[in-house]
Amino acid sequence: MQMFKFGFGQDVGIDLGTATVIVYVKGKGIVLREPSVVAVDNITGEVLAVGQEARRMLGRTPGNIVATRPLRDGVISDYTVTEKMLKHFINKVCGKFIFAPRIMICIPSQVTEVEKKAVIDAATQAGARKVYLIEEPIAAAIGAGIDISKPCGNMVVDIGGGTTDIAVISLGGSVVNTSLKVAGDKFDEYIVKYIKKKHNIMIGERTAEDLKVNIGCVYPKIQDTEMDIRGRDLVTGLPKTLTVHSSEMLEALLEPAMMIVDAVHSVLERTPPELSADISDKGIYMTGGGCLVDGLDKLLQEKTGINVMIAQDTVSCVALGTGKALDNLDVLEGKATR
Questions:
Q1: What is the pLDDT averaged over residues 207-229?
Q2: What average pLDDT does the segment 19-33 reach?
Q3: Which of 39, 40, 60, 192 might form a disulfide with 67, Cβ 3.0–4.6 angstroms?
Q4: Taking a C-beta distance cutoff of 8 angstroms, is the pair 289, 160 a contact?
Q5: pLDDT tens digit string along 255-294?
Q6: Residues 288-326 pLDDT 10s
Q7: pLDDT of residue 9
Q8: What is the mean pLDDT of residues 163-179?
Q9: Using H for helix, E for strand and C for coil, what is the string for the chain?
Q10: Domain boundaries, the chain
């Protein structure tokens, strides 16, 4: 019967990211990867589009429709819209379920109790039978294939859309961690500011993201690359085309990249000496979509003197780790969050 698409009570892992929501279903792997954007009708409160379709509407909607990202800096900024978005994705993945799914959701390593409760409540309202939370760096480490159960130190730097989570993990838990609100979105903001200041041209978030993905870099490139963009000239108010070079992106992005490097430095300073020795042997693992900015691994390696590796399938690392953690749900059953 089609209406009961996925049997009884799925186990679902969700990487509830500021930029992207990735859903993992036990036994099926990653089944959904959509931007965390929702388009809502202001007058009726009705959700008009979610995910990819809503992302295309960003900055292009009439007055009564608002395309928003309900998560900012890794936490829920609009509870109602987040709940609707989760409901949409859960229904899309699980179809009509007889038993509600058990859901494990990733959260940044230093969120407050209030922020944790908001995630649990939103998932419960969206149809979860039980909600479990897992810290992002731990999920990222599991997803990157690191055995975190052993008594040796592993350092993970997970750069997402809203937050960068840095943790030293040993024996299945984080020994030292920090979470800073400098990540992919902040890079986009710095690009917008830079183009505005240097060229007097206003560009949108999506254009800034395209620049970051295509020619963005935080370490000098051997060959300078360029890209044409369009924006609004702040002097004439008219549309204008501009050619931007990767050397300019280096100027724009170096400051937020150094904030991440400094945060890694401060975590290393607080790490117990035995674990520091392990990290200098094994190196630092980078995960998350934000670490794909060209040269970020080289910059971190140069500043710390420690070998830096980018995990395979960085964007999905956290979701894959959540999926693997789902296999141990029955162990966690005693620690369930209702």
A1: 92
A2: 89
A3: 39
A4: yes
A5: 999 999 999 999 999 999 999 999 999 999 999 988 989 9
A6: 988 989 999 999 999 999 999 999 888 889 999 998 888
A7: 64
A8: 91
A9: CCCCCCCCCCEEEEEECCCEEEEEECCCEEEEEEECCEEEECCCCCEEEECHHHHCCCCCCCCCEEEECCEECCEECCHHHHHHHHHHHHHHHHCCCCCCCEEEEEECCCCCHHHHHHHHHHHHHCCCCEEEEEEHHHHHHHHCCCCCCCCCCEEEEEECCCCEEEEEEECCEEEEEEEECCCHHHHHHHHHHHHHHHHCEECCHHHHHHHHHHHCECCCCCCCCEEEEEEEECCCCCEEEEEEEHHHHHHHHHHHHHHHHHHHHHHHHHCCHHHHHHHHHHCEEEECHHHHCECHHHHHHHHHCCCEEECCCHHHHHHHHHHHHHCCHHHHHHHCEC
A10: 11-138+318-335, 147-182+253-314, 184-245
- Identity of the amino acid at 90: I
State both tokens at 18.
């500021």
Domain 147-182+253-314 superfamily per CATH: ATPase, nucleotide binding domain (3.30.420.40)
Class in CATH terms, 11-138+318-335 = alpha beta
Same fold, 147-182+253-314 and 184-245: no
Task: Classify domain 184-245 by CATH number.
Answer: 3.90.640.10
